[in-house]
Specification:
InterPro entries: Bact_RF_family3 (IPR041289)
Number of strands: 18
CATH superfamily of the largest domain: eRF1 domain 2
Structural class: alpha+beta
Order of helices and strands: EEHHHEEEHEEEHHEEHEHEHEHEEEHEE
Number of helices: 11
CATH class of the largest domain: Alpha Beta
Radius of gyration: 26 Å
CATH topology of the largest domain: Nucleotidyltransferase, domain 5
CATH architecture of the largest domain: 2-Layer Sandwich
Largest sheet: 5 strands, mixed
Strand content: 15-25%
Helix content: 25-40%
Number of domains: 3
Strand order of the largest sheet: 1-4-3-2-5
Length: 376
């Protein structure tokens, strides 16, 4: 058995339905000398997980715990640690999320994976594509709240010469007559350049949409001169291209400058989204289309009525949610296989096409730690 570091969320391991499963969260340290203790935290959490399943048939988990020992001693694995880490495993597979946010140290053995911290990370961290557009070329970046890096693209897809090749418009020629008069061909060099540029922009739009936007389903931020952005937006069919762009000469921006400008756009988007979440609940609640009562919300999830579920971050309610009956079974943190009720509810909402939002206490639209907006 081997572990795999992943970014995809949700991951296929969450849909397998195996039970029990193990979720380990580590509040990893990234600076010396504290980071040298990360493997100790992990070792202690693995011990907790082992104790939770000691009364269960554990032969199927022997390979997994052997893998955990290898991971514990792997200096390279810990060298690349971020602020938080999530390790999800069943008796066949182990995946690792390196999270850019701090998490609470936890080891949970339950019938389903504990995913709220990962949801929080992806929601806050965000994931964006950044299209740095020039008239004759473009660069594509992937960005989140903590970093930006360029995606390598072949010139045949990212430059006007590579895309158009022999189809590029032949430059017009000026012909001199014996009398000295200059005769021009039809159209001008400026017109020909414009035609080629629009062809290139159409290709770029289609290529990015097909290869990246449709695949990863993340917002696309456009960077470039005003005139290039205007032309590109007129023809773009990419539904993930957002209205907020960054106006400026791409050549004048180094990666750090671009990163800083992207962060400003992303922060504005999140603040607007937070405002919309608050307003949506307030309006829905006034029309009896929303609730902050956990029992009512549980029944609404079973009836497939929850469009958005709001949960306060880092709240852990031992027990489980039975989606088939819309009932809540409370447990104790020391119980074997004691999952988190709210986490079960979050998974149920996601599986039925709803949205789950993890918020800080002051961001919740109600004084309670759970709220929901209904579909109808």
């Amino acid at each position: 058995m081997k572990y795999k570091i992943v970014e995809e969320f949700p991951h296929a391991i969450m849909e397998k339905g195996k039970s029990p499963v193990i979720s380990i969260y580590i509040d990893t340290k990234i600076k010396k000398p504290d980071r040298l203790e990360n493997h100790i935290y992990f070792k202690n959490l693995v011990r907790e997980a082992q104790e939770s399943i000691k009364h269960k048939e554990v032969r199927g988990f022997r390979d997994l715990f052997s893998l955990f020992k290898i991971m514990e001693d792997d200096a390279l694995f810990w060298e690349g640690a971020t602020e938080g880490m999530a390790i999800l495993a069943d008796d066949e597979e182990c995946i690792v999320y390196k999270l850019p946010i701090s998490v609470t140290n936890r080891a949970i053995v339950a019938d389903s994976f504990y995913i709220k911290p990962i949801l929080k990370s992806y929601q806050l961290n965000g994931r964006y594509h950044v299209l740095a557009l020039k008239g004759d070329s473009y660069a594509l970046y992937e960005a989140n709240r903590h970093r930006i890096h360029q995606i390598h693209l072949d010139e045949k897809h990212s430059t006007i010469d590579g895309v158009l090749g022999d189809e590029k418009t032949v430059p017009h020629k000026s012909v001199g007559t014996p009398t000295g008069q200059v005769l021009h061909g039809h159209g001008s060099a400026k017109d020909e350049k414009k035609v080629d540029q629009l062809k290139f922009f159409r290709y770029a739009d289609a290529f990015i949409q097909e290869q990246y936007s449709n695949r990863y389903k993340v917002p696309l931020i456009l960077v470039g001169l005003d005139e290039n952005q205007g032309e590109f937006r007129k023809l773009s069919k990419n539904q993930y291209l957002i209205k907020e762009g960054i106006i400026g000469d791409v050549d004048s921006m180094d990666e750090k400058t671009l990163y800083d400008k992207v962060q400003g756009v992303m922060e504005g988007i999140f603040k607007q989204q937070l405002k919309e979440w608050m307003e949506a609940f307030t309006e829905a609640h006034a029309k009896d289309l929303g609730s902050d009562d956990v029992v009512q919300i549980a029944r609404a999830i079973t009836d497939n009525r929850v469009a958005a579920l709001y949960l306060e971050e880092d709240k852990f309610h031992p027990g489980r949610f039975d989606i088939s009956h819309g009932s809540i079974v409370e447990g104790k943190s020391e119980d074997q296989y004691s999952g988190d009720i709210y986490d079960d509810m979050a998974e149920a909402v996601l599986s039925r096409g709803g949205e789950v939002v993890i918020l800080e206490k002051g961001e919740m639209p109600t004084d309670r730690d759970i709220a929901a907006v209904y579909r109808f």
